[in-house]
TrEMBL record:
<feature type="domain" description="Protein kinase">
    <location>
        <begin position="50"/>
        <end position="323"/>
    </location>
</feature>
<keyword id="KW-0547">Nucleotide-binding</keyword>
<dbReference type="Pfam" id="PF00069">
    <property type="entry name" value="Pkinase"/>
</dbReference>
<dbReference type="GO" id="GO:0005524">
    <property type="term" value="F:ATP binding"/>
</dbReference>
<keyword id="KW-0418">Kinase</keyword>
<dbReference type="GO" id="GO:0043484">
    <property type="term" value="P:regulation of RNA splicing"/>
</dbReference>
<keyword id="KW-0808">Transferase</keyword>
<dbReference type="GO" id="GO:0005634">
    <property type="term" value="C:nucleus"/>
</dbReference>
<dbReference type="GO" id="GO:0004674">
    <property type="term" value="F:protein serine/threonine kinase activity"/>
</dbReference>
<protein>
    <recommendedName>
        <fullName>Protein kinase domain-containing protein</fullName>
    </recommendedName>
</protein>
<feature type="compositionally biased region" description="Low complexity">
    <location>
        <begin position="8"/>
        <end position="36"/>
    </location>
</feature>
<keyword id="KW-0723">Serine/threonine-protein kinase</keyword>
<dbReference type="InterPro" id="IPR051175">
    <property type="entry name" value="CLK_kinases"/>
</dbReference>
<dbReference type="InterPro" id="IPR011009">
    <property type="entry name" value="Kinase-like_dom_sf"/>
</dbReference>
<keyword id="KW-0067">ATP-binding</keyword>
<dbReference type="InterPro" id="IPR000719">
    <property type="entry name" value="Prot_kinase_dom"/>
</dbReference>
<feature type="region of interest" description="Disordered">
    <location>
        <begin position="1"/>
        <end position="36"/>
    </location>
</feature>
């Protein structure tokens, strides 16, 4: 099972970090349930007109199963015990504006209720990046390709005023067996510009400084920070910013790598005085000690701007010279 979408302090609504990918552990014909969705089933049972063929994964608020239709076409069905319909609304909006699925976002097929459960029928994809890099080392050409695809997908979402809010390797999934096409999944925490913005989003390791500090506003630029963390992880095979459930320590680590937190951010935080004094941390490995490619290093520093007003956006990322290089 993949890492949980958020830590215990989060109020995110994402049900699974691998909503349409394969899972390394599948259950047999016995019953199964997740911490937030006690759905008992057996392989071969029906959900509406679909037959359950495999367990895929579970998350905080639900589980994902593989099902097939009457033509034996496989799908992923996300089963939730409750929903605020935000995820479905976002998926429908994306489907309306990208009917052929060219934006690199998991295809949405249907939403229905079944025995008091909310079911979201999605495209069945392949393995997610988190699971893949456990046994495969990506080369710089593969990283460049994935980086470009994910940024293009994010740019489409951001153009619609949608922030993904939970960008991480578990939510980037290969869409083919050749492992050269990826798609974004899990819109459970996606937030539209005109909606309430939760004070805590993202899985902690990928959380931007303005989100950690509960600043007055966060926006699509928080996805850029998460994307930068993700790219470093693909490059090294390890989580970049390793931190426990401690905001002050998290900020202290970020500050030791990227410099001081601007004073205006401390003033706009909902916990102003809390962040005035940060704990001392052990010496952290700097980004230039990790990333050898100088163009990629330059791009990542632009994405890791602590001040989100100065953080580079998706269009600027794609225009960076790193993407004009041939590997």
């Amino acid at each position: 099972m993949a890492r949980s979408t958020t830590d215990s302090s989060s109020s995110g609504s994402s049900s699974s970090s691998s909503s349409s990918s394969s899972s390394s552990s599948s259950s047999s014909s016995g019953s199964s349930s997740s911490s937030g969705c006690h759905f008992n089933y057996e392989i071969g049972d029906k959900i509406d007109k679909y037959v359950i063929t495999k367990y895929l994964c579970s998350g905080t608020f639900g589980m994902v199963l593989e099902v097939t239709d009457q033509q034996e076409i496989p799908y992923a069905v996300k089963i939730l015990s409750e929903t605020d319909h935000t995820e479905v609304d976002v998926l429908r909006k994306i489907q309306l504006l990208d009917p052929f699925g060219e934006a690199g976002i998991v295809k949405f097929y249907d939403y229905f209720t079944w025995q008091d459960y909310h079911c979201i029928l999605l495209e069945r994809l392949d393995i997610n990046l988190h699971d893949y890099i456990q046994s495969h080392t990506l080369n710089i050409k593969e990283i460049q390709s994935i980086f470009k695809q994910v940024t293009t997908s994010l740019m489409f979402m951001h153009s619609l005023g949608i922030t993904h809010t939970d960008l991480k390797p578990e939510n980037i999934v290969f869409a083919n067996q050749q492992k050269n096409l990826v798609k974004l999944i899990d819109m459970g925490g996606a937030t539209q510009a005109n909606e309430h913005h939760s004070t805590v989003i993202n899985t902690r390791q990928y959380r931007a400084p303005e989100v950690i500090m509960r600043c007055d506003t966060w926006d699509t630029s928080s996805d850029i920070w998460s994307l930068a963390c993700l790219i470093v992880e693909l490059y090294t095979g390890r989580v970049f910013i390793k931190v426990g459930n401690n905001d002050l320590m998290h900020l202290a680590i970020i500050q030791s790598i990227f410099g001081p937190i601007p004073s205006y951010m401390k003033q706009s935080s909902k916990f102003k005085s809390r962040f005035n004094s940060l704990p001392k941390v052990q010496s952290q490995k700097q980004l230039h000690q990790i990333i050898e490619d100088q163009d990629l290093l330059d791009l990542l520093y632009l994405m890791f701007s602590i001040d989100h007003h100065h953080r580079i956006n998706c269009k600027q990322i794609l225009e960076h010279k790193f993407f004009s290089k041939l590997f």
